[in-house]
Amino acid sequence: MSKTGPLIIGLTGSIAMGKSTVAAMLVEEGIPLFDADAEVYRLQGPKGALLPAIETAFPGTTGPEGVLRQKLGAAVFGNPDQLKILEAIVHPAVAEARRQFLAEHDDAPMVVFDIPLLFEKGGYQGVDTIIVVSAPAPVQRARALAREGMTAEKFDHILTLQTPDAEKCARADHVIDTGTSLAETRAQVRALVKNLQQSH
User: How far apart are CA 158 and CA 16, in angstroms?
Assistant: First the structure.
């Protein structure tokens, strides 16, 4: 039985690997993008649909501007049980938004799901092909530590929560190397899109 609807591309990569850059390049190639993180921000932003449920579960963590990230972060950071409660609020809403996105783009040849924790949370089961964005570890560390508010300790903790880059690359159908120039990365993206268009 042949699959109907668009080819679903799962895009992932560890922190500071250049995933957002590659996602933007895929959009430039005309591929609709569902950004899971952006959807979470929207749902938790001003007048966001999830604010009442989050405030009920975690009193004092929301305000007129939406979720108070530091307060909510403090409530769930290092506490798996509290994190599960938050995920039970957020994940179904994101899944519903993704379903609507797919319905809207049912006639597109391809769509991209940008999912940071694709392997960690099982999202890889819902995609047809997986692109992992990768860069050498020293490049990744330098990029991450250049971010505002990032510390070596925080960066190392984030790495412990993510599937190791080598394992991601081994499980990927395609790997985009961003340890090169932007032009070279864009060339890789274009070649891959062409390849996927021909094979789908």
Answer: 11
Kindly state the tokens that stand for 105: 């783009």
> Mean of the pLDDT values across residues 47-51?
95
Report helix, strand or coil for 172: coil
Encoded amino acid at 148, one letter: E
Q: What CATH number did the domain enclosing 22 receive?
A: 3.40.50.300
Q: One-letter amino acid identity for 120?
A: E
* Structural domain that includes position 158: 1-32+109-200
Residues with Cβ within 8 Å of 158's Cβ and at least 6 positions away in sequence, in order, are: 15, 144
Q: Are residues 113 and 71 in the same domain?
A: no
pTM: 0.85
- The model's pLDDT over 150-189, given as tens digits with 9 standing for 90+, comes to 999 999 988 988 899 999 999 999 999 999 999 999 999 9
